[in-house]
Amino acid sequence: MERNLYGYARVSTIDQNLDRQLQQLQEHISDKRYIFTDKASGKDFNRKSYNTLVGTEDTAPLLHEGDILLITSLDRLGRNYIEIREQWEYITKKLKADIRVLDMPLLDTSTTTDNLDKRFIADLVLQILSYTAEKERENTRKRQRQGIDVMPILDGKRVSSKTGRPTGRPKAEYPDHWKEVYADWKAGNITANKAMETLELTRTTFYKLVKQYQ
Questions:
Q1: Which of 30, 74, 167, 210 has CA 20 to 30 A from 133's CA?
Q2: Which residue ranges make up each domain of the chain?
Q3: Are 101 and 108 in contact (CB under 8 A)?
Q4: Between residues 34 and 214, the one the model is more confident about
Q5: pLDDT by residue (tens digit) across 117-126?
Q6: Are residues 206 and 199 in contact, defined by beta-carbon separation less than 8 angstroms?
Q7: Is 12 tagged catalytic?
């Protein structure tokens, strides 16, 4: 079975440079037509070149069974390990293509001998990385929560021990004549749009103040 080797490189913004990734990929892929690039955030997978490789609901994938997708690092597949795992499983199990990660040799499913063992090791490493990343996120949230819990409270708001300033967003201030306009609106004498116009408030701010006031 013929195996094609494709490379994929991505950076998160148009200002970032792809050169380092391209240089690494070109050491393995001489034909640049087989290297695909995106300058787009990993927050979603609406990426033209990536979608060309893996396909969409409307287009067939370029990757076929036995083909190899070469990436420089695991985070080129997505912004977090949940998304990365989903893409990993889709490529290796649904498309039955292989993935090789250059900066992590254990993450390589493309070995032709003992392929089952190789896939098992790669999947196991990915699971461990996912678990480690999730635990780190949990610990970070726990530390943040602990830091917030020990903050002193002043006028109903927690105050940062470091800056001495209240934390969180400041409450929106009520404009002049709020009580009168609010009363007219609640009584049905004026519409909400008229109240917003009179108070010179946007719809979002108006209803935020209403919720606060109630």
A1: 167
A2: 5-136, 178-213
A3: yes
A4: 34
A5: 767 777 787 7
A6: yes
A7: yes
SS3 category, 208 = helix
Give the Cα separation of 58 and 161 in Å (integer): 54
User: Closest Cα partner for 126 from 92, 170, 168, 163?
Assistant: 92
- Cβ atoms of residues 26 and 5 within 8 Å: no
Question: What are the residue ranges of helices labelled H in 76-202?
Answer: 81-89, 115-149, 178-186, 192-199
CATH class of 5-136: alpha beta
pLDDT digits (tens, 9 = 90+) for 88-137: 889 998 999 999 999 888 888 887 555 667 677 777 877 787 777 677 76
**In this structure, which amino acid lies at residue 171?**
K
Q: What is the distance of C-alpha 214 from the center of its chain?
A: 36
Radius of gyration of the chain (CA): 27
Task: Look up residue 193 and give its amino acid.
Answer: N
Closest among 83, 71, 76 to 109, alpha carbons compared: 71
Which listed residue (12, 49, 73, 130) is catalytic?
12
What local confidence, expressed as pLDDT, does residue 63 receive? 96
* Separation of CA 7 from chain center: 22
Averaged pLDDT of the chain = 81
Ramachandran region, residue 192 (left: φ > 0; alpha: ψ -120 to 50; beta: rest): alpha
